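sanity check this record:

:::
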Amino acid sequence: MPTQEGIVKYRCDYTQAPALPNDQIGELNAWRKLMVITGLIGQDPARYGGYGYGNISCRLDDRDRPDGRHPFVITGTQTGGKADLTADDYVTVAACYAEENRLVAEGPVRPSSEALTHGAVYALDSHILWVVHAHSPEIWCNAAALGVPMTADVPYGTPEMAAEVARLYAESDMAQKRIFGMAGHEDGVVTFGRTAEEAGFAMLEYLVRAMQLGERMG
């Protein structure tokens, strides 16, 4: 059963800290803006109880860290409704312990409710450096026709979802397609890649393909 958007379900060991320099969030901001323009990130009073939806992150380094300390920068909680973000809207997740349902974060704002899922994706492969979580009814509703790997119906932002992401990565062609959908998170779709272009264009490619399916069915 799809769950409500925008509710943080993990424990966050959060420390207030200064914003990152603007040059560290420039590429993130540009790709987030594109996702907002295409409606993949945003806020709509008629959808998801009016909560903001979607977020984007990038890993700070590509070192393999088995202790969970694969730091990444992510948009802050409930920033979906903002057309433009500043450095004050981004936070660094220093460590992610999915099995403990816990994050360690620092910055001017708390991390997105989906930060645990982002951490689970980064834990799959040290070459994954970018993650985009969007909401696309077009992709989500046509997942089977598009061949999008789907998790089981488990709540987002939980250890169960993190475990599902790992299972799906191991048992499907998710690694090759760089996309998966979340059956328990209405319209929730995640893409990832070694670069912003890989993660971002994967999302846009599947959106275009989904829209083409809709045109044919219409």
